[in-house]
Amino acid sequence: MTGASRGIGRAIAERIASQGRIVVGVARSLDGLKDVGAAITAAGGRFEAQACDIGDSTALAQMVEQVAEKHGRLDILVNNAGITKDGLLMRMSDADFDDVIRVNLKSAFVACRAASRPMMKGRFGRIVNVGSVSGLMGNAGQVNYAAAKAGLVGMTKSIARELGSKGITANVVAPGFIETDMTAVLPPQVKEQALPNIPLKRFGTPTDIAAAIGWLTSDEGGYVTGQVIVVDGGMAM
Ligand code: NAP
Predict the structure, then answer these.
(1) What share of residues in the chain are helix, strand, coil (percent, to 5)?
(2) What is the mean pLDDT of the chain?
(3) Assigned domain for 237 exists
(4) pTM here?
(5) What is the DSSP annotation of 130-141?
(6) Mutation pick for ligand 1 pocket among 10, 28, 191 (CB with most ligand atoms within 8 Å)
């Protein structure tokens, strides 16, 4: 799973490890993964850290292949790592558009493609791509991010159709407003404006998202594929 060092990804890593899986957590540096690795190990779980910039397609594909080869199987892939480079349409640079598409969308394609071979071999797979309500509703200032997250939906549904007969499910979990480093940088007025639009009247936590992904990747979630599970306190309905 990617983006395991902090925020939503860290909670996903802890959750999946608590379900008895060996979690291979990816972030750009091994240093960033030390804390989550220590927490999982202390709780009796199994965690391996992998440093990889998922924007580098060659490195990402090689890493996924090596993980599958080392363990002789690959059961679950969670594409969670993501970035924002927000700006209004008129002022958005090509570089900011391309970077967000590469890290948030293309990386998921590359990882899914690399994971599909070992998953097909094992006739089992659970793919979860972490989307966003921005990809469903749109969001002013996020044309790049919303395009990438909307792209994940079409890609995931296509993968679900292609690989379903091999025992592989593919779903999107779309978080709403979750308290992490990504949202900590937003101006206070953005948060004040968001809260009244959330029927449950609170921002989400990484654990809220991890719970949905934990269920989808468990045996109980095995008959759900091609879906977008929105975990947002009711914000996008
Ligand atoms: P975050 O706190 O900013 O964490 C981002 C994670 O992605 C970190 O672990 C980071 O690791 C990793 N990462 C970023 N760029 C990477 C790269 N090039 N290569 C490898 N790893 C990279 O973000 P978050 O809020 O937990 O978000 C997680 C996911 O949920 C993202 O896909 C985000 O779009 C989505 N989401 C979040 C919210 C929200 O409200 N927070 C809402 C909707 C959707 P390092 O920095 O250690 O490399």
Answers:
(1) 55, 15, 30
(2) 98
(3) no
(4) 0.98
(5) E--THHHH--TT
(6) 28
